[in-house]
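chain below, 307 aa
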Amino acid sequence: MKSIVVQKCLTNKHASIVTDETNGEIICSDCGYVLKERIADFSHQEKTYSDGKTSSKVRTGSPSRISIPDMGISSTISQKNVDASGNRLSHSTKKRFHRLRMWDFRSKNAGKKRSLNKAFAHLDSLKPKLGLPDSVIEKTATIYRKAANRGLIRGKSIPVMMASSIYVACRLSGIPRSVDEIAKASNVTRRYLIRSYKRLVSYLNISLEHPGCIDYLGKIASKVGASEKSQRLALKILQDVIKDRIVQGKNPLGLAAGAIYLSCAANNEKISYPKLEKKCNVSAVTIRKNTSMFRKYAAKYIDSIEV
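prediction:
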């Protein structure tokens, strides 16, 4: 029995309370009254890796993730030719473990597993480029695995299919990432990305909602360095524009860029059309047209606008 003082007994306040971890009870050491029974046992909690940090008491290994080719459940044979005590292995044992390592490597890089290794290595390289959270990465891996099981990856380029899976995952998660942005980061052509994206949506029966101009507002504002005041004004303008239903068929990036330019000009924040064109990948002509269209909606929030 392990004694741990946790509180005072209700009948005898001077007596200590002990915890019987074997029977799962909390008992008064003086009168023997059982205050609580069937308590949870926290003495052997499983520990896992967290952010690359390991513990000497780890028994469960790294957490399972879909974005890992083997999902983190396969074993790893150490390259060190020593036993658990640190003693060097004999010559015959070294030969046997060398052969085990060879077959372990071949089993992990055979057939579809080799394709998954290349695909998820490419996914890891795209994560910092596009600034994607772990939830989107896991959703992308799920979509890619479903496509691989349906035979949609066979004969297709891995970077193109992975880029289209990322675009679908971003659309499902509500994260604004344009086709051009993903194509540029993946080093693939826009036409092939759209073609594979349509193929994924069709064969996997995925229903998607088109991203709105408000979804791109915060992203564009951070890129051009717009203030929070300008961002709130642009949001009000876009909300009024959406109510009048004049945004249908227009590029949401261009609409958000036009609202940001108008709000920045109203708050005396210097921003140019070429800067917006470079940051948003939208032509200056489109931004200028949207700005002219939004002026009447911004009139009730701003007295005078010089653009």
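The mean pLDDT is 78. Residues 213-298 form a domain with the Cyclin A; domain 1 fold (CATH 1.10.472.10).
thats it, cya
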